[in-house]
Amino acid sequence: LRKLANKIINSSTKLLPRWRAVVEANRLKPKNLPRDVKTRWNSNFDMINTGLAYRCAIHEFTLDSSNGLSDFHLSSTKWAILGNLRDILMDATLYFSRDSATLATVIPSMDKLDTMLATAIITKPDGEKSVFTAAVKVALVYAKTTLNRYYAKAADSLIYRNAVCKLSIFCSSDATESDDVSTSP
Predict the structure, then answer these.
(1) What are the annotated GO cellular component locations (predicted)?
(2) Global pTM value
(3) How many CB atoms lie within 10 A of CB 82?
(4) What is the distance in angstroms between the CA of the first residue and the CA of the last residue of the chain?
(5) Which domain holds residue 183?
(6) 99-124, pLDDT tens digit by residue?
(7) Residue 5 sits in the same domain as residue 88
C-alpha cells in the first residue's frame, strides 16, 4: 500500500486522475491513499485502514494493465495480513489519540503493550493459540523492537526522570507525610 500510495500521488497527470475516476466509479468518498510517514506514529494505521476501506477500488486500479501497477496487486493473503495489522493497531491508535493520554498513563500503557506484544507473538489475549500469519508475527517482533527504542527515549527524558525520582520518594517506606510536605516547593 505504501508504494502504491506514493506512485499515485507522485503521478499527478496520469495515475492520480485515473485513481479518482476509479474511486468515483466505486461510489467511494474521493480520497487519496494516505502515505506512511515515519514521524507520524499512527500513519501506518491510517494507511491500512483506508486501504481496507478502498479495497475494491485498489483491486480494480491495480488490475488495470494500462496503469502499469500490476506488481502492486494484493493477494487475499496480503489483505488478510492487512486486516490483522489494522486490528492490532486500532486499539493503540484510539487509546493514544484520546485527550486524556498523559505521561502518567502512557508509560504504564507501554508496559502493558510490551507484555502484550511479547505474548501476542505466541498466543492471543484470551489464551488461545495465535492465528496471526507469519508476516504479522514478524511485524509484532519489529513493533517490540520499536517499543524498546521508545523506552530508551523515555528514560532520557528529563520529565520522566523527575517523575520516577518523585515516585520513588513518595513510595519509599522511610518517607512520612511531614517529609513530603516539608520538601514540596
Answers:
(1) nucleus
(2) 0.61
(3) 20
(4) 53
(5) 101-185
(6) 666 666 767 777 777 777 777 666 65
(7) yes
